[in-house]
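[job 4471] stage=fold_predict status=RUNNING
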Amino acid sequence: MQFLVSVIDDKDNPGSTDRMPAISEFNERLITDGYWVFAGGLADTNSATVIDNRGEQALFSDGPFVESKEYLAGVWVWEAPDLETALRLATEASKVCDRKIEVRPFQ
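[job 4471] inference complete, writing C-alpha cells
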C-alpha cells in the first residue's frame, strides 16, 4: 500500500527550524527499510498559484487555495504493508520534524 504523508505546519505555532539533520536521518532509515517512495518540502504558501480551468477560460489566483493558519509544508509518499505500519512511522515523523502529520492511503 502507498500512503500520502502530509507535513502540516502552523503559522501561529510553527515547528522547529533546526530539524533537517533529524529529518535526513529519518529519511535514510525509510530508504534503508524500504518504505521510501518520494519526499519533498514545499515553498511558502505565498508562492502558490491556484488554477481553475473548469469554465470557459482558465483563472489563475495567487496564494494558497485556502487561507488558514495551518498549511501543507511538505509531503512523503511511503510504501508500507498496512495502515498500522504507516501510522507507526508517522508517529515517529511527527516527533522528528516537530509538526503535525496526516496519513492518507492512495486508492
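[job 4471] summary: The longest strand covers residues 70-79.
[job 4471] exit 0
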